[in-house]
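Table S4 entry, Truncated transcription factor CAULIFLOWER A-like.
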Amino acid sequence: MGRGRVQLRRIENNTSRQVTFSKRRTGLLKKAHEISVLCDAEVALIVFSNRGKLFEYSSESRMERILERYERQSYSERLLVPTGSESQANSTLECNKLMSTVEALQRNLRHFLGEELDPLSLRDLKLLEQQIDNSLKRIRTRKNKLMLESISELQKKEKTLQDQNNMLAKNLKEYEKRLPEHAQCEHQNYAQNSSWSIVQPPPPPATIQFPSLTIGGCYQAIEGITKEAETQPQPSISTVIPPWMLRHLNR
């Protein structure tokens, strides 16, 4: 005899129910994969356990693509159905969609802040921890990049300031080296200009001292004096022989 039809009802035993859920879930995911490969179909499967644990399968790389396609398709089909409250239904659908999105984002934000973690399972907590670690890695990478860029910019500024300091020190040394020469040139120019402006006084006239001579030897003395006066530079003074000397010469 063949097997009779098994009546489907809830399994009361928790252990048996959990084992049956694991087996059927594995088979369901396997069948979804087979139909997506064999028939080239886009398949999306979402399963929530009685504990709120999520199990999903998507033939695409992202589940959101299939869900967006489903929403567009269902929305287009609803547009083709003539209803009296069409605009109100569309507005209600869009509002519900936005509210669901906002609620999901707020829930994720609370989870990232470490709040309302009691409903999450161990797998969800590990996934949340991995997401936070990845976010921290990206934040640290960005922070390190900005710090390196800042350090590089400061090093460039330091090098520029050092070059300017070296140039100023070099110019200062050259200025200090040329300062004595410049001062000496100015002193020479000042002395030269002063020599032209200051008039040297003429030398005083030479005084002729006559020794006490006898009358017979006064002519030889006067001749020697005249020769000595000729050898010396003569100042511009008119010399006049006194009359008493002329009287001695006449004798």
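The chain has three domains: 13-80, 82-120, 121-194.
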